[in-house]
Amino acid sequence: MSTLASPERIWWKPLGKEEKIWLGIAIFWAVVMFFMMIVWGAAARQDTPTETYRISTTQYTQLTNAFVQKYQVRTEGGLPVVSPPGGSDVYLMGRTFQWYPILELKKGQTYRVHLSSVDVQHGFSLQSAKAPLNMNFQALPEYDYVITLTPAESGDFYIVCNEFCGLGHHTMTGKIIVKE
Ligand SMILES: [Cu+2]
Protein backbone atom coordinates (compact mmCIF):
# COMPACT_ATOMS: atom_id res chain seq x y z
CA MET A 1 0.00 0.00 0.00
CA SER A 2 1.22 3.44 -0.84
CA THR A 3 2.36 5.67 1.96
CA LEU A 4 2.53 8.86 -0.11
CA ALA A 5 1.50 11.76 2.07
CA SER A 6 0.08 14.94 0.63
CA PRO A 7 2.14 18.09 1.31
CA GLU A 8 1.33 20.30 4.23
CA ARG A 9 -1.48 22.61 3.27
CA ILE A 10 -0.07 25.73 4.95
CA TRP A 11 3.62 25.41 4.14
CA TRP A 12 4.64 28.99 4.89
CA LYS A 13 5.56 29.90 8.41
CA PRO A 14 5.08 33.30 9.96
CA LEU A 15 8.23 35.47 9.79
CA GLY A 16 10.45 35.44 12.83
CA LYS A 17 11.45 38.67 14.55
CA GLU A 18 14.98 38.76 13.04
CA GLU A 19 13.76 38.10 9.52
CA LYS A 20 11.30 40.97 9.90
CA ILE A 21 14.10 43.31 11.01
CA TRP A 22 16.33 42.36 8.05
CA LEU A 23 13.47 42.70 5.61
CA GLY A 24 12.68 46.12 7.07
CA ILE A 25 16.30 47.26 6.66
CA ALA A 26 16.43 46.01 3.06
CA ILE A 27 13.19 47.76 2.09
CA PHE A 28 14.22 50.96 3.85
CA TRP A 29 17.59 50.96 2.03
CA ALA A 30 15.99 50.27 -1.37
CA VAL A 31 13.77 53.32 -0.84
CA VAL A 32 16.77 55.47 0.21
CA MET A 33 18.74 54.40 -2.89
CA PHE A 34 15.75 55.10 -5.14
CA PHE A 35 15.59 58.70 -3.96
CA MET A 36 19.40 59.00 -4.05
CA MET A 37 19.28 58.41 -7.83
CA ILE A 38 17.08 61.47 -8.20
CA VAL A 39 19.07 63.62 -5.73
CA TRP A 40 22.42 62.58 -7.23
CA GLY A 41 21.26 63.23 -10.78
CA ALA A 42 20.38 66.80 -9.83
CA ALA A 43 23.01 67.62 -7.20
CA ALA A 44 26.19 65.94 -8.43
CA ARG A 45 26.18 67.46 -11.91
CA GLN A 46 27.50 64.23 -13.32
CA ASP A 47 25.48 64.30 -16.52
CA THR A 48 27.02 65.86 -19.61
CA PRO A 49 24.97 68.85 -20.74
CA THR A 50 23.53 67.83 -24.09
CA GLU A 51 20.84 68.81 -26.56
CA THR A 52 19.59 66.74 -29.47
CA TYR A 53 18.13 67.85 -32.80
CA ARG A 54 17.03 66.18 -36.02
CA ILE A 55 19.19 66.95 -39.04
CA SER A 56 19.70 65.41 -42.48
CA THR A 57 23.08 63.89 -43.24
CA THR A 58 23.45 66.26 -46.22
CA GLN A 59 22.86 69.28 -44.02
CA TYR A 60 25.25 68.01 -41.37
CA THR A 61 27.95 67.47 -44.02
CA GLN A 62 27.40 71.03 -45.28
CA LEU A 63 27.67 72.50 -41.78
CA THR A 64 30.86 70.51 -41.10
CA ASN A 65 32.44 71.57 -44.40
CA ALA A 66 31.55 75.23 -43.77
CA PHE A 67 33.03 74.95 -40.25
CA VAL A 68 36.26 73.44 -41.62
CA GLN A 69 36.53 76.09 -44.33
CA LYS A 70 36.07 78.88 -41.81
CA TYR A 71 38.53 77.83 -39.10
CA GLN A 72 41.07 75.46 -40.69
CA VAL A 73 44.64 76.29 -39.62
CA ARG A 74 46.69 73.44 -41.13
CA THR A 75 46.54 69.80 -42.12
CA GLU A 76 47.80 66.81 -40.22
CA GLY A 77 48.04 63.38 -41.82
CA GLY A 78 45.77 64.47 -44.66
CA LEU A 79 43.06 65.77 -42.32
CA PRO A 80 42.27 69.42 -41.70
CA VAL A 81 43.08 70.77 -38.23
CA VAL A 82 40.37 73.21 -37.24
CA SER A 83 40.80 75.81 -34.52
CA PRO A 84 37.52 77.54 -33.70
CA PRO A 85 37.30 80.43 -31.22
CA GLY A 86 35.85 79.82 -27.75
CA GLY A 87 32.08 79.95 -27.54
CA SER A 88 31.61 78.78 -31.10
CA ASP A 89 29.79 75.84 -32.64
CA VAL A 90 32.13 72.97 -33.40
CA TYR A 91 31.25 70.18 -35.83
CA LEU A 92 32.59 66.68 -35.56
CA MET A 93 31.49 64.18 -38.17
CA GLY A 94 31.71 60.43 -37.86
CA ARG A 95 31.92 58.48 -41.11
CA THR A 96 33.32 55.12 -42.14
CA PHE A 97 36.11 55.06 -41.00
CA GLN A 98 37.12 58.48 -39.81
CA TRP A 99 36.39 61.24 -37.34
CA TYR A 100 36.43 64.48 -39.32
CA PRO A 101 38.09 66.96 -38.81
CA ILE A 102 40.85 67.17 -36.17
CA LEU A 103 39.81 69.74 -33.56
CA GLU A 104 42.10 72.18 -31.85
CA LEU A 105 40.46 73.70 -28.77
CA LYS A 106 41.66 75.97 -26.00
CA LYS A 107 41.73 74.94 -22.35
CA GLY A 108 39.09 76.71 -20.26
CA GLN A 109 37.02 77.85 -23.24
CA THR A 110 33.49 76.56 -23.70
CA TYR A 111 32.37 75.09 -27.01
CA ARG A 112 29.18 73.65 -28.38
CA VAL A 113 30.44 70.43 -29.89
CA HIS A 114 28.06 68.95 -32.45
CA LEU A 115 28.35 65.23 -32.98
CA SER A 116 26.72 63.20 -35.70
CA SER A 117 27.30 60.47 -38.24
CA VAL A 118 26.68 60.72 -41.96
CA ASP A 119 26.42 57.00 -42.61
CA VAL A 120 26.03 54.32 -39.92
CA GLN A 121 26.01 54.43 -36.14
CA HIS A 122 29.38 55.20 -34.56
CA GLY A 123 30.48 55.45 -30.95
CA PHE A 124 32.48 58.37 -29.65
CA SER A 125 34.83 57.45 -26.83
CA LEU A 126 37.40 59.94 -25.62
CA GLN A 127 40.87 58.85 -24.51
CA SER A 128 43.78 60.77 -23.09
CA ALA A 129 47.29 59.60 -24.00
CA LYS A 130 47.28 57.50 -20.83
CA ALA A 131 43.79 56.25 -20.22
CA PRO A 132 40.18 56.33 -21.37
CA LEU A 133 38.24 59.32 -20.04
CA ASN A 134 34.71 58.74 -18.98
CA MET A 135 33.16 60.41 -22.03
CA ASN A 136 31.16 58.15 -24.29
CA PHE A 137 28.51 59.24 -26.75
CA GLN A 138 26.65 57.77 -29.68
CA ALA A 139 26.98 59.35 -33.11
CA LEU A 140 23.77 58.62 -34.96
CA PRO A 141 22.91 59.53 -38.53
CA GLU A 142 20.21 62.25 -38.75
CA TYR A 143 20.66 63.32 -35.14
CA ASP A 144 22.66 66.37 -34.15
CA TYR A 145 23.92 65.77 -30.64
CA VAL A 146 25.25 68.96 -29.04
CA ILE A 147 27.63 68.63 -26.11
CA THR A 148 28.55 71.74 -24.14
CA LEU A 149 32.19 71.14 -23.45
CA THR A 150 34.92 73.02 -21.57
CA PRO A 151 38.31 71.30 -21.82
CA ALA A 152 39.90 71.26 -18.36
CA GLU A 153 43.29 69.83 -19.38
CA SER A 154 45.63 70.52 -22.23
CA GLY A 155 47.22 67.83 -24.39
CA ASP A 156 46.36 65.46 -27.19
CA PHE A 157 43.18 63.46 -26.88
CA TYR A 158 42.04 60.63 -29.09
CA ILE A 159 38.61 59.51 -30.19
CA VAL A 160 38.03 55.81 -30.56
CA CYS A 161 34.96 54.44 -32.30
CA ASN A 162 33.41 52.04 -29.82
CA GLU A 163 30.42 50.98 -31.89
CA PHE A 164 31.23 48.32 -34.47
CA CYS A 165 30.63 50.04 -37.82
CA GLY A 166 32.22 47.80 -40.43
CA LEU A 167 35.48 46.29 -41.62
CA GLY A 168 37.58 49.39 -40.94
CA HIS A 169 36.08 49.98 -37.49
CA HIS A 170 39.38 49.34 -35.66
CA THR A 171 41.07 52.08 -37.70
CA MET A 172 38.44 54.70 -36.88
CA THR A 173 40.26 57.06 -34.57
CA GLY A 174 40.17 60.83 -34.30
CA LYS A 175 42.03 63.52 -32.50
CA ILE A 176 41.27 66.56 -30.33
CA ILE A 177 44.16 68.86 -29.44
CA VAL A 178 43.70 71.06 -26.37
CA LYS A 179 46.05 74.02 -26.12
CA GLU A 180 46.93 76.02 -23.00
CU1 LIG B 1 33.18 52.34 -35.70
In which order are the strands of the major sheet placed?
2-3-6-12-11-8-9
- Structure classification: alpha+beta
**Integer-rounded radius of gyration:** 26 Å
Shape descriptor:
elongated
Assembly status: single chain
The CATH class label of the largest domain is Mainly Beta
Low-confidence stretches: none
Mean pLDDT over the full residue set = 93
Helical percent range?
A: 10-25%
Distance between the termini: 92 Å
> What composes the largest sheet?
7 strands, mixed
Q: What is CATH's topology name of the largest domain?
A: Immunoglobulin-like
Ligands bound, unique: copper (II) ion
Number of H/I helices:
2
Task: Count the beta strands.
Answer: 12
Order of helices and strands: HEHEEEEEEEEEEE
Describe this entry's structure for a reader.
The chain has 180 residues and is α+β, with helices and mostly antiparallel strands. The protein has two domains: 32 residues; 130 residues, Cupredoxins -  blue copper proteins (Immunoglobulin-like), CATH 2.60.40.420. Helices cover 23% and strands 39% of the residues. The strands form two sheets. It has a seven-stranded mixed beta sheet. The chain has a five-stranded mixed beta sheet with strand order 1-10-7-4-5, with helices on one face. It is elongated, with a radius of gyration of 26 Å. The N and C termini lie far apart (92 Å).
